[in-house]
Amino acid sequence: MLKIAYDPIYAHPLPEGHRFPMLKYELIPAQLLHEGVINKDNLFSPDLLAEDVIIRTHDENYWHQLRDLTLPPKEQRRTGFPLSARLVEREIRIAKGTIDGCRYAFESGVAFNVAGGTHHAGSNWGEGFCLLNDQAIAANYLLDNYLAKSILIIDLDVHQGNGTAQIFENEPGVFTFSMHGANNFPYRKERSDLDIPLQDGVGDDEFLDILKTTLPRLIEQQKPDFIFYLSGVDILATDKLGKLALSKEACKARDRFVFEQCIKHSIPVQVSMGGGYSPQIKDIVEAHCNTFKTAIDLYF
């Protein structure tokens, strides 16, 4: 059975004026339930994450500033959110949901987190709507508990996974692959193990050709026993923060190709949703829901 991490706090951790970026996290599971693609048994609500697991990935002082709500105002502005206990709880539950998703992925091949993909959070900073790096925390958890030896993080959000790259810059057990807009946020890039910067306006055929050339070779070289996939839909032409020009059909083809590669090599995959900022919320929700539908079509 497909298992999907979701909690209402994903969608409602902020004051009224800041809620639009979070609205999709309520609408994605609602739409999947409405269409009968999933039922309530597919959803699970993550618990809180233990502090020792958090500080394995994030600097202890940075974590204490988040936990105690003492993060300096300048650093709060960098995250894009006003800091609150509810927001921090949201980040903790998302990270726990990604860890739990890994365990479900070992059983079923694939598992999802409705939120997550918080790849701009580095070891001692938050930025770009990211405070704790859920997939980095989960990757370290797998390594520490001998659940995986070789991990591949596939980041296909329009923005570089700079926090993830920084966290794992000296970790041979995790290979970071980011394919992103060259001229987009973050403007100070970190070095992933493999970065493919794309020029503005890259469309369906070029994007898919690069991915289909790169990913099979990367899997053959690295031989990962677990994959994390960040499936941001801010690569869409409609996205107001992205600078690429992909259609929904190409976004769906991207997801299908990643899943097919995981299936071909019998590698479990955990999926976090990442970004999506099209002006019309329906475009964001439809594109994200297509990722779930594609996985269900291939795995179940």
UniProtKB/TrEMBL annotation:
- Give the record's GO biological process terms: epigenetic regulation of gene expression
Residue intervals of the Histone deacetylase domain? 21-290
Pfam families the UniProt entry points to: Hist_deacetyl
What keywords are annotated for this sequence in UniProt? Hydrolase
Q: GO terms for molecular function, please?
A: histone deacetylase activity; hydrolase activity
Q: Which SUPFAM superfamilies match?
A: Arginase/deacetylase
The domain of life is Bacteria
The family line of this record is:
Belongs to the histone deacetylase family.
Protein name in the entry:
Acetoin utilization deacetylase AcuC
Q: Which organism is it from?
A: Mucilaginibacter gossypiicola
